[in-house]
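User: Could you check the structure of this?
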Amino acid sequence: MDSTILLFLLQDGITSGAIYALLGLALVLVFAVTRVILIPQGEFVTFGALTYATLAAGKVPGTTLLALGMGVIAFAFDMIAGRNAMTARKAVRSLAVNILLPLAIWGAATALAGQQNGVAVNFILSIVIVAPIGLYLYRIAYQPIAHASVLVLLIASVGIHLALQGLGLAFFGAEGLRGPAISAAALTIGPLRFTGQSLGIYAITILLIVGLWLLFGYTLYGKALRATAVNRLGARIVGIRTSVSGQFAFLLAAVIGTISGILIVPITTIYYDTGFLIGLKGFVAAIIGGLVSYPLTAIAAIVVGVVEAFSSFYASNFKEVIVFTLLLPFLVLRSLASPEVEEEND
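Assistant: Sure, the predicted structure tokens are below.
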């Protein structure tokens, strides 16, 4: 292998690793707040990518209807859960968030479809369409079982992943899509050529790493969010609204997943089930980071991307096996280093 090929492989690995870092950060964020290992994070990638590609093609994406349907179900859940203590203010708030918001988004998407919208408009509209799905997903699937064990929440995540993947097939079909690049700019350094798309990936990843690290490490609100995972009962006693914390975490995870999908859809063709495998590689990075450290998760994601790039060059048939094998030594080391602790139920 000459130095040029080595540099190309490193570039590809770092670019892929930056995407995995975004997904790993979202997984760490959700787990830090809700104790949920968010297997459906890959579906947010898929929905974001296909929504952006569909908007670029001048069509209304099916995710607008998905968000509306989930909003109706979330509204029904709110009405049933609060039937004995429902006030007019709570009812109006639930109606606005769960019904009027997705209706307004659907109307905006319908009005803008078919027009020659710029990349920025489609980028923002894709985030606006997909982000509420994360909000409603927490309300429907996770909030009712928020006190369950991590294992129960993980099993629920697997079932939700399968359901969302089926919905992705129903709304987008089996054909893959690609979208326009966010920037046509390019930068050449020696033999390497950095496109505007890859530079955008690096910049957004760094901003999110720094932002999340500052939020959870140095702000009162971030520490309050983490407190909900450590002790939900204690968090409620001191006035932290644990349901709102969970909704915020899932909303932010959906935004990060959507951005990740938009960043990769110009690079590779995205199908309804593509996000799952991409999300699993972010999961590998999050596990290596212990599901607690944002900087360590980002570093692990870069390592995963570089290992994948070199595995594709040397043993392409086994690259997935090699990537997921990275988990084994870290799991063994953590099992030996950590004493067995019986989980406490609230």
